[in-house]
Amino acid sequence: MNIAYILPGIGVSGGISVICQHANRLLKRGHRVSLLVDYLQGNLDWFPNQNVPILPVNNTPKDLDILIATGWTTSFSLADLPAKKKFYFVQSDETRFHKPDSVYQDITALSYLLDLQYFTEARWIRSWLKTNFGINAGLVPNGLDPELFFPDSPLEERSEKPRILLEGAIDLPYKGMKEAFEVVSNLDVEVWCVSSLGTPKPEWKCDRFFSQVPIDQMKNIYSSCDILLKLSSVEGFFGPPMEMMACGGTVVVGEVTGYDEYIVDGENALVVEQANIDQAREAVQRLINDPKLRNKLIGNGLMTAKEWSWEKSIDSLEDLLSRSLSVPQDARPTRALCDRAIANYYKLVQQGIINDDNRPGKLTNKVAILDIYKAHLSKHSWILDILIFMYNSAKTLRSWFKNSLTRPQ
């Protein structure tokens, strides 16, 4: 098969690392694989043994069998790109990345209404897509690469104090780094921090800081620390706790979507209420004080990590993609029209023509829409048709989606 993934970027991130695992393992199995990006800046040298070619989207191969979007910003590109089958690999509920009731939350929700085939990495995401959008998504679980994560030489020998690792993008509030630093602020511990975006504030307790760490160096950091503390409020599959387990460490996590894909409280990790600072601090102190519990979690964590195989996951992915090619393509022109309308709505948001102050959901009638877009309509006649379509659907969709967000996951 000739397969391409569209990436939202090529900076250090867990989501991009998962895509690199897919792409490079498919390449090793003899498939033609490429990675597409809007802006070809930098490279993926932070991911070890990365051999898949990276191309700009405007050089997308013309003979693709499979084209895969990998995030809400990439999904809209599929309307204009050729491929026999188009997929959306959903790695989280990305509506939660944005402010509630914002135009970006709206447009992210629309990405799940595109006429694509969907697959995901976690059971909770598959259930969420089915419940809220009626999507029957395939499941391709993440794996653990034993060549990248195993107990290894520490970067620095341990001191008398326990060493706590905080990992996550500091500048993304939903990664919970501010809360994690609050937990350790008055503990008698050494604190290490890894962040792919942002740096610790001067007043935060941090003994050693690492930024943009290549994947193959993370095992040495994990192996240098006793406890990983993760308090994210938004996650997909939740990779770092499993990586810490594979390197022989213990884990304290907050209750977040995806933790229960492999974490069992009291068996291979300690789980606390989300954003409960006191409970998280007590859990960390409990691990420090209770060597018997700590050893139990270490042993069970090592066994957990061994259960998650990338090769089994790529078997599932390969089967999912190949089976799709035997199914006739949906030739309904109205579906293609709707996809283009959604994609064009995204372009209007990108250009600032639609924003939180003037989006259709806040306008009272079509005349108001025409007044706002008068300058654009003379140059782009197609906008009028799209806006009328979006106006008629925006109120219903917005009300339906806001209700869906309040349903239990």
Write structural notes for this entry:
It is built from 13 helices and 13 strands. Helices cover 38% and strands 14% of the residues.
Based on Cα principal axes, name the global outline: globular
Please report the number of helical segments.
Answer: 13
Which whole number gives the mean pLDDT? Answer: 88
End-to-end Cα distance, whole Å, is 35 Å
Q: Could you give the order of the helices and strands?
A: EHEEEHEHEHEEHEEHEHEEHHHHHH
Estimate percent helicity.
25-40%
Oligomer: single chain
The strands making up the biggest β-sheet line up spatially as 3-2-1-4-5-6-7
What profile does the largest beta sheet have? 7 strands, parallel
Q: Structural class of the helix and strand makeup?
A: alpha/beta
Percentage beta strand: 5-15%
Unreliable stretches covering 5 or more consecutive residues? 363-380
Number of extended strands: 13
Rg value: 23 Å
What does this entry show, briefly?
The protein is of the alpha/beta class. The chain has helices spanning about 15-30, 70-75, 105-110, 125-135, 175-185, 220, 240-245, 275-290, 290-305, 310-325, 335-350, 365-375, 380-405, and strands at about 1-5, 30-35, 55, 65-70, 85-90, 115-120, 140, 165, 190-195, 210, 225-230, 250-255, 270.
